[in-house]
Amino acid sequence: MTRFTALLLPLLICTATAQAAELTASVDRSRLNSGETVELTLETSDVTQFGKPDLTALEALFEVRGTRQVNQLNTLNGDNRATTRWIITLLPKENGSVVIPPLQLGDAQSQPITVQVVESDTRENQNSLDPVFIEASLDQSSVYVQAQAILTLRIYHSVSLYDDSSLTPLQIADARIEQLGDTRTYEKDLNGVRHGVIEMRYAIYPQHSGLLTIAPQTFSATLVDTQPSQDANAQGPKPGKLMRVSSAEIPLTVKPKPLTYPVDAPWLPARSLSLSESWNPEPEHTQVGDSMTRSLTLKVEGLASSQLPALPATDVNGLRRYPDQPVLANQSSDRGLIGSREEREALVPSRSGAIDLPTVDVVWWNTFEDHLEHSSLPARTLQVANNPSLQVDTPAGNLQVSVVDNDVLWWWKLSTLILACTTLLGFGLWWRARWQPAVHRAAQTGPSPRTLMDDIKRASQANDPQATRQALDAWARQQPETLADMAARFVPLSDALDGLNGALYSETGQHWQGEDLWRAIRTIPAAERVQDPVGDSGLPPLYPK
Fold this sequence. Notes:
By secondary structure, the chain is of the alpha+beta class. It has helices at about 1-20, 410-435, 450-460, 465-475, 485-490, 490-505, 515-520, and strands at about 25, 30-35, 40-45, 60-75, 80-90, 95-100, 105, 110, 115-120, 130-140, 140-145, 150-155, 165, 175-180, 185-190, 195-205, 210-215, 220, 240-245, 250-255, 270, 270-280, 290-300, 320-325, 325-335, 335-350, 355, 360-365, 370-375, 380-385.
């Protein structure tokens, strides 16, 4: 044991060291214009590392504008986790696809990251001589109705500003507005002058076709007064100058829905769309009464989750369906908003055999390639097996009927003879028993029907769906027919069983009331029940039939 521990300890130390030596790299954005800076963040949780990463590999493609270090100590469930971050401001020297190379910190190395540097439009520098100016731009000049257009506001300042800056709220009539991520701050060189940039991005969804006008946006800020004071006796800092700058008015052409789009389909203008499904558990070995959860996920680039329609329900004969509330989520990216809608439903097979699930088809308009598209999940067939635990047990003493094999039908004469002999023998035994005293039937191997009925009554009146289902299955095993057969001919029982299954298989059925089920069990026609021959008195009937 000591030798095993001695061998295991170095392995654990090496594993912990490898995990601690991890150095991860990330950037605040992966697409930028020429002359703009990007922030590279290096993070490690290795407390044994000292110093800072080697930035020599960056000098060929980037100008390092600044580096700052941030140390953090987080406590989670009593465990302390220390992290160290280096935030490095980089100015790319080239346009196009530029790779941030791996950086070294001790034995750890970061992964490479690729950023796209787009050449700037020379027109954006026309106001670069002003200390503060604002620029507004759209990613496209025309969009379809309810499709996404991205508005970018950039505020440039070559002088320092106080923290009292403000921007007028973006308000556009007949349009939905979603802000994309948080406000970004970075630097950009314009005509050799370094400017600070404040960037905000919005997703705009016009609700009507025609011409949409985006009004000018006004930015207000107080400049830091860097001029020397004229009054030598003045005490304290001098107030700065208040600046107000406005962007230009931007027109946006909104196109109506194409005439080729299906009239009965929800309008979905998107850049890309994906449809996927998952099962828990997988349905390959399902049985009658088993609960499966099917999840359908619709993920759309260019639309918010609130704009996504409901997916077709799994309304199939042989499957009971218990849907959950849809899960909606939004995610911001460089190309706008990505909305997702996940719909989950519990499916319970009510019969064995093959159950066909239809194709799930979603119609949408590809705004990037400007044409109609279909995204679909193929049809599939579920093979449902019988559930032995739900089969009705054959009562003791019942006559077993033999199934005649088709291969031996030519033995019909022998079969007829055997049947005649057994019939005569049975008739003789019945005649003999006719004159015998009445006797109790064989003792049951389980609880009496009255006891099982009492169990159902107690569980249902206690509003306990699990105990009620167990008592109901035990009672059904002593009945001449299955619960499904009784529910098929007695509607109150069918409705009560649906309510019980909903409480068992659906996350939303948390407050089940068992009074309806108990009332349905009590009111099943007496001729369809298995009667307790002992009765309330505990004696056999006076005149047996």
